[in-house]
Every structure is written in structure tokens, then in C-alpha cells.
Amino acid sequence: MSSAKQLVGARVTLRPLELSDFAAWSKVRNENQAWLTKWEPLQNHSADPAADKSAFALRCSSRDRDIQFGVGYGFGLFVNGVLAGEINLNSVQRGPFQSGQVGYWIAEGFAGNGYVPEGLVLLMQYAFEDLELHRLEIAIVPRNDASLRVVEKLGLRNEGLAKKFLEINGVWEDHIRFAWTSEDWQLLGSELVNKWLI
Q: What is the pTM of this model?
């Protein structure tokens, strides 16, 4: 069992994925392959975790190690107990940075219902209040209108375009970088909690 806690919102629950989630994760990833592939880096491992249970087990173990070392926090996003996507806090840096990178995906059938913004508020609350991070960043491909709507709904700050920032489906793509700091959370976090989590 992972050491990161379960995060519970009004409609969404975030918790680390476990080996027992393989069937659900495999199903949602395979059913949404065309929906997700255009927004994600190419697979860089020999075995596909959506098709190979041992590869999924390694993925879960890797995420558990990240949690233990405090460098990453991966969560399945569940709606009414059904796995709908993931929200991950990656590349956590301590020292003078106290920052992390956020990424997320959701199955097409769950998209457009506000589940990702709710999950993101849960993650922000955890990152700023429990992990005591100072800054979170999200990088989004400019053509990804659905993902841009998520950060716009929450009022994250647009910090500009990063050229050829990340490889997406085999192509180095520009990304718009969005961020929030603990000062932003102190000022506006309670509004987000009241709107999305209560």
C-alpha cells in the first residue's frame, strides 16, 4: 500500500494506484487510446503497462518509490469509485525551489464534467498545505483546448510559451506554462475549495 494519503473531494477521490487497479486502468487506457495518444509522450518502455500486468506492477512500484523519496505523487482519479483518469505531481524539487510539475488525463466519457478541475484543487491543497511546496507548474500544448479550460476555470497564471518544451507523440511541441504559488493559494485557495470541494 502506498504511503500517500487518499484525497477526497465532493465528487472525486484521488489515491495512488495499486496492482489491483490493473484491470480498470488497462480498460480505460485501451478504450481511450486515440483520445489520449495525441497529448502524451511516446511510450519509452519495452512493455505496455496497459497490456502487461507485470509492467503495470513496475509502474506502481516506481510511483510508490517516488512517494517514499518525496519526488513524485501519482494519483488515480476516481469518480463514484470508477477509475476515470490520473493526476500526477512530478519532478518535486526541494531546497530553494520547493516546486513540482503537474500532469493529468481523463477518459473521454468523463471529460467536460469538471472532474479534473476538482481533482486539481485537491492536489493543489495537498501540495501547498501538506507537502508545503511553494510553486506548481502545468505545461499545456496550445491546441489542447480541453486542458486549457481546466487551468482557466481555476485561474492559474499564464507564464508564457516554452518553445519545443516536451516531446508529444514523437514531436517536440511548444507548451504554455501555467503556475500557482503558495502565496496564490493563501490568497485564493479557500475560494477554490468552497467552489470545487464542498
A: 0.92
